[in-house]
Amino acid sequence: MEPNISGRSLSAVRLSGVSRAYRDRRGSAVQALINVSLEVPEGSVLAVVGPSGCGKTTLLELICDLQRPDGGLIETQPAVLMPQRDLLLPWLSALDNSGLALRIAGHTRAHTRARARELFAELGLAGFERSRPHELSGGMRQRVAFLRTLLSGKQVLCLDEPFGALDAITRAQMQTWLVQALRHEPRTVMLVTHDVEEAITLADRIAILSPRPGRVIEEIDVELPHPRVRTDAAVIALREQALGTLGQEHAA
Amino acid sequence: MPHESSLASAQENGPVHMRRSAATILAPVLLGLSILGIWELYVDLHGVDPLVLPAPHAMAVQAWNNSGLLWSNFTITAEEVVLGLALALACGFAMAVAIHVWAPIRRAVYPHAVGSQAVPIAVVGVLLCYWWGFGIFPKLFVIALICFFPVVVTTVDGLAAVDPDQLKLLRTLDASRWQAFRFAELPAALPAALSGARIALAVGVIGAYIAETSTPSTGPHAGLGHEITADLTALQTSRAYAATALLFLFAIACFYALSLAERKLAPPTNKP
Predict the structure, then answer these.
(1) Minimal CB count within 10 Å: which of A67, A134, B138, B255?
(2) pLDDT for A1
(3) Within an 8 Å CB–CB cutoff, is residue B45 touching chain A?
(4) Does the CA dihedral B110-B111-B114-B119 come out positive or negative?
(5) Could you tell me the residue range of the domain that residue B215 belongs to?
(6) Which residues does B17 contact at the CB level (< 8 Å), separation at least 6?
């Protein structure tokens, strides 16, 4: 991560001792997160890894102010959520879907389309402006959804398993694509994934959550240059370290 | 490239589409003609009394001889149906939105909306006339009362069927309640609302008949409903049947007019 002008990196997101419980369908309380403390420096990518059901999605929704914590403190720059499913509106074109946030902010259709069109080319979507979501491949739909998140103009992007539904090849392509997209449009990113390899490929730092109730059991710095190759020895070492932590927690 | 493929398929579909639309017209016409043929044979061969069931050719003769009378009554009924349906759609849609947006309204209003469908119109006919006289308005009220319900039910369901995750997404993009409605709920509910409108349309014509027969009117031409009742009393059965055939055709015309409007309003986008 890069130091800012004053010489120390600022946090875009800071969680201290955050806890959150919710009621399940039967009405009994489920502790999703317990005493979670995290810091994400401005402009960096934090990957949150953990077994399914460990409260990763809850964590992102807390940061995006879609839920309130029961305890603890959340300080964050404006954050926007990119949910697991692309949730593109089927009656809007790809271009209009990507510009939804601008329309909501009150911009005219013409202005919105002009802004979105600039980034369409940059993010490899040129030529698909007028396509409806059902005409796009899974990878392209995720790109449009990502662009919609980006155009909200918020500093913190909370990506919830953005490539979880894609096949292995498309997924690898999208990971490369995301690294490039963030180089064009630097933001602070919270990336939730259950894929350790994806975390190592994309993140500057990895936080590993325990099974429910989720808490941070290890943080790993990934100080490797991009592009990261999954067969690289350093990558493999980090993966073993992370999987080891996850495995111990399961065995315990 | 999806653009190219969809263009190409549109071109290929050209003649197929035309053949299909010819079939859409031809199939019901042929079925209608064969039913008329069987009907004609049945009446002729069994010697059914024309007061019980007039033969199609007798209806045609009556329609031809009374075309002026039938037409002037038809225009009255058609006006009632169109305006009454417009009122039903507007009120039904507004009520559905209110029910969707505000839970107390749903709890308070929904049962009464259901109950209102059980009210025999003749019971309130006199009251409507006492309020609004002999003009068209009592009839519009009756048609709207009969037709608004399917619009409410389908629109409420359509609005409620919006994916909650979709609404969450809009919230994270800072959409207000109104914007969530405008960008997600309203367009998502449109097909359901239009289905409701189609049901309303199909009931609208019989609604006009009920409206005319259960509220008093003045003047020589008071609509096809009046005409039919008067003809049945005067043993002019074949003219009543001719008027009924007009209602039959008008309902079909209304239904397909809406389908056309629907295609303009909500082009199909969900095709896989």
Answers:
(1) A134
(2) 43
(3) no
(4) negative
(5) 58-265
(6) none
A43 and A55 co-located in one domain: yes
Among the residue ranges A20-29, B6-15, B131-140, B150-159, the one predicted with the least confidence is B6-15
Going by C-beta distance under 8 Å and a sequence separation of 6 or more, which residues neighbour residue B221? B69, B72, B73, B76
Residues A26 and A129 in one domain: no
Band of residue B57 on the pLDDT scale cut at 50, 70, 90: very high
Q: Across the A/B interface, how many CB contacts are shorter than 8 Å? A: 60
Indicate if A171 and A247 belong to the same structural domain: yes
Q: Is residue A5 part of a domain?
A: no
Residue in the block written with tokens 């999987």: A243
CA–CA min distance A87, chain B (Å): 6
Instruction: Give the Cα separation of B106 and B96 in Å (integer).
Output: 9
Tokens of B183: 């960008």
Facing residue for A91 by CB, picked from B6, B168, B187: B187
Across the range B243-268, mean pLDDT stands at 83
What local confidence, expressed as pLDDT, does residue A250 receive? 57
On chain A, the residues whose CB falls within 8 A of the CB of B270 are 90, 134
Residues A161 and A244 in one domain: yes
Residues B26 and B65 in one domain: no
Q: How many residues does chain B have?
A: 272
Q: How far apart are CA A168 and CA B172, in angstroms?
A: 29
Query: What is the mean predicted confidence (pLDDT) over A240-250?
Result: 77
Q: A71 and A177: one domain?
A: yes
Domain count, chain B: 2
Q: What is the 8-class DSSP label of residue B183?
A: I
Does A4 map to a domain?
A: no
**Looking at the complex, does the CB of residue B233 fall below 8 Å from at least one CB of chain A?**
no
The ipTM is 0.83
Q: Are residues A118 and A233 in the same domain?
A: no
The DSSP symbol for A228 reads P
CA distance B14 to chain A (A): 21
Q: Answer whether residue A1 is part of any domain.
A: no
Closest chain A residue to B180, measured at CA? A104
Which has more pLDDT, B201 or B271?
B201
